[in-house]
Amino acid sequence: MLCQGRSLWSALQRLQFVGGGAASGGGGAVAVLSDPSGINGRSLWSALQRLQFVGGGAASGGGGAVAVLSDPSGINGRSLWSALQRLQFVGGGAASGGGGAVAVLSDPSGINGRSLWSALQRLQFVGGGAASGGGGAVAVLSDPSGINGRSLWSALQRLQFVGGGAASGGGGAVAVLSDPSGINGRSLWSALQRLQFVGGGAASGGGGAVAVLSDPSGINGRSLWSALQRLQFVGGGAASGGGGAVAVLSDPSGINGRSLWSALQRLQFVGGGAASGGGGAVAVLSDPSGINGRSLWSALQRLQFVGGGAASGGGGAVAVLSDPSGINGRSLWSALQRLQFVGGGAASGGGGAVAVLSDPSGINGRSLWSALQRLQFVGGGAASGGGGAVAVLSDPSGINGRSLWSALQRLQFVGGGAASGGGGAVAVLSDPSGINGRSLWSALQRLQFVGGGAASGGGGAVAVLSDPSGINGRSLWSALQRLQFVGGGAASGGGGAVAVLSDPSGINGRSLWSALQRLQFVGGGAASGGGGAVAVTVTFDTEIMATGSKAA
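RESULT FIELD:
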């Protein structure tokens, strides 16, 4: 069967993830299509229907789950939903070091043949994070027999994440429904209303936040929004090595009972990244009393990320609103207009970029777009160990004041990944003067990621447009059609994939889908330490992709 020339779906129909996680150190899952000849040529859904993730996480160090279709012959040929209905994740995280959850359908014979929702209704994540080093949560449906047969929502209503992060080294949160009997049978929202993340990151090495509903009895029974209104992330990142932020609602009693927006209005991320090794930013609302009670936008307007990445090893950016008093009270856009990321990646080991608004006084007060128009990421990845790219607007004076698109048109990522240890790609616009002034699409058309992953330790891919002159000036789709990721992950430690278009001449000029149809990820993760997937075109009747991950 010929690969349908206009769709990513068809490109993936014979996609093979091969060798991923093989031997030791592999982090990607291994997938092979069990019967590509019978795949529906028009849809990703059907392409996945016989998709098999095999061998992933095999031996030691594997981080991907292993999936096999238990009965592909009975799968509904038109839908991903049905493809997953009998999908089994088996053996994932086996032995030691496994980081993926292990899932098995407890009763595929009774699954509703038309819906992913029903496929998940009896889905069991079992054994994940078993023994030591497990990073995935372990989930089991406490009562699949009573699950609403038509909805994922109901499938999750009694879902229990149990044992995740058990013993030492666990990185996943442990969740248990405190009262599944009282859960609204028709909605995920209600299922989460009494959800408790308990014990996550317990002992040492835990990286997940620990969340407990402070008052599930008062939660609005119909909405996730209300479920989160009293949600408390407590103890996350406790002791040493914790990487999750710790959040507590400063005044749940005053929270608007119908909206997540209001729940976050007094949300405080406190203690995150405390002591040494913390990787989460610490956020505190500078003036919750003045926050607009109906919107997340206003909640963030005075949000301060303070102390993030403090001391050594900090990986989060530090943000402070330079002038919250002048922020537009109704919009996140305006909140970000004077937002400053300061000190991020400071000293050694910093992984966050440092951003400062070069001219906040001239920013359009109603839009994030304009806020970013003069945004400068400066100093990111400075010294050694920096992982963030460094960006500077090459000509902010000429930027279209109403759009992010135009702000990015002359955006330059310069110096990223410089020296050793840099993980961000380095991008420079090859010809900003010729960029279409109204669109991000055109800004990317001549965008070049150059030098990324250079020297040692680089983790970003290196991209260069092979023929910018022929790119459709109005669309990202066309910009990517000849985009080449070359040299990414070069030398040692590279984690980015290397992509080259195998036949740009035959690509549909109006769509990303077609651009990716012949896209090849080649050499990614080459040498040692590579963590990106490696894709190489294989041939059946036409060009298609096969992707995998090289082991160290």
